[in-house]
Amino acid sequence: LSLERFRSALWLWLFLLAAASMQAEPVLLSHFKMDGNGRDALGNSPNMELFGTSFANKQLNLPCNPEPGFYTALARIDGFSYESFTVAWEFRANQFGYPYTTLLSGGPGYRWIEFGSTADGHLLLRLNNGQWLISFTNALRANQWHSIACAVDVAARSIVTFLDGQRLRDVDLGSFQFNVVGTPSEESDKAFS
């Protein structure tokens, strides 16, 4: 849940589904309901780490005018696989565009996957800290609830993304690999902010 760039409150429900590419059935690893706390409803992953933000009225709220520094909520996912995973969440933001472009980011260090928006509210998908940029024509609207679901399968070389229930164009990964794999940060970057 990359929340550090939104000036005002963003209410977010995060659901993470991940599966190793050799498993026949996906395994639900974590479900962060965001309904008043940062706990994984399944009890599989640690509580979210909150920095400069908090829950109020059963919602994750961000400061309108944050103190110097950053604010974020970090969800570490035990058992996560970079090879095959699906992440889905619902959110409402007061505005889109620079500097409030990040919606959800995978990896506090490498930013191996990041969902964001353009100034005119179009959905962006960035991979490997922006080395790959996939732009979609579908628009996000301020002060409206949106849902995004994205399935990544590196072995099958594909990314399938849905915005508000509508399937967006598929992404062919070719010989793509996440840069974080094989680095000292591989385990600690198995998190979303």
Keyword list:
mainly beta, disordered N terminus, 4-stranded antiparallel β-sheet, 193 residues, 7-stranded antiparallel β-sheet, 0% helix
Word description of this protein:
The protein is mostly beta strands. β12 (146-153) and β13 (158-163) form a beta hairpin. It has no helices and 16 strands. The protein has strands spanning 11-18, 27-32, 49-51, 54-56, 59-61, 72-76, 84-92, 102-106, 113-117, 122-127, 132-139, 146-153, 158-163, 166-167, 171-172, 191-192. Strands 1, 2, 7, 12, 13, 14 and 15 form a seven-stranded antiparallel sheet that branches.
Q: What is the helix tally?
A: 0
Uncertain runs: 1-23
% residues in beta strands? 35-45%
List the secondary-structure elements in sequence, H or E: EEEEEEEEEEEEEEEE
Write down the overall mean pLDDT.
Answer: 79
End-to-end CA span: 4 Å
Number of strands: 16
**Rg, Å, rounded:** 16 Å
Helical amount: under 10%
Q: Which class do the helix and strand fractions yield?
A: mainly beta
The largest sheet is:
7 strands, antiparallel
Query: What form results from the Cα inertia axes?
Result: globular
At a glance:
Helices cover 0% and strands 42% of the residues.
Helices, strands, pairings?
Elements: E1 11-18, E2 27-32, E3 49-51, E4 54-56, E5 59-61, E6 72-76, E7 84-92, E8 102-106, E9 113-117, E10 122-127, E11 132-139, E12 146-153, E13 158-163, E14 166-167, E15 171-172, E16 191-192
Antiparallel strand pairs: 1-2, 1-7, 3-6, 4-5, 6-16, 7-12, 8-9, 9-10, 10-11, 12-13, 13-14, 13-15
